[in-house]
Amino acid sequence: MSFQWTFLATFLYCELIVVIILLLPFIPPSWWQAFFKSRLAKAFQAGAKYYFNFIICIFALLFMDSIRELRKYSGVEVKDLATPQAEAHAHMKQFRSQRNFYIAGFALFLWFVIKRLINLLSAVAREMADSAAARKQAEGAHRHLESLPTNDSGKVDPREIPLPSAPPSRYIDPKEHDAEITKMKQEILQAHENIETLRDQYDKSIKQYDELNDEHHKLQNKLAVLSETETDKDK
Description:
By secondary structure, the chain is mostly helical. Helix content is 83%, strand content 0%. The chain has helices at residues 3-22, 29-36, 39-45, 48-74, 84-154, 174-234. Helix 2 crosses helix 5. It starts with a helix and ends with a helix.
């Protein structure tokens, strides 16, 4: 095996190892995201695009060369060979061309697979981070809402709590609370409707202004034409 095919086969084995490592189920995407943001990965990110395209060009050239050799040795017929040694040599050349074809094809294919896997892992890690941040924010808001009644009740001295027949001034009736929430929702909806109405009016006024501006330009052009004709008549 010549140097270029030995190098390509070694690269193919490395690609297989990388794909297997990227597909390991017990490594979460967050670990890969942390690795991609490390100094070692950032050192390659500056020229990653050029490295990727350069390796694609090399693999494509070797793949086309393997296709050329495959077509060259596939056309050899047994009747054209004079001796058994020549036939064995031709079969050996044919086997090597097929081997090089598969090596180059799989190396080129796995290179695209690795790039796609890295992009997918990064996207999944970002989505997981966003969902975790949103979950923490929702939990914090929920805890804050739950702590509001407890904080209010904690400020009141138990000895000052009146009897149930006379509820305290801080007592909130659930029905009144729901009524206020419904009222606020209606006000918000009304405000949205008013905004949409103002937006429609603004769009109509802009359209009318454009139409008036066009008519103004037309009248100015007509006035200019009339003034030119009058000056011509005076002459």
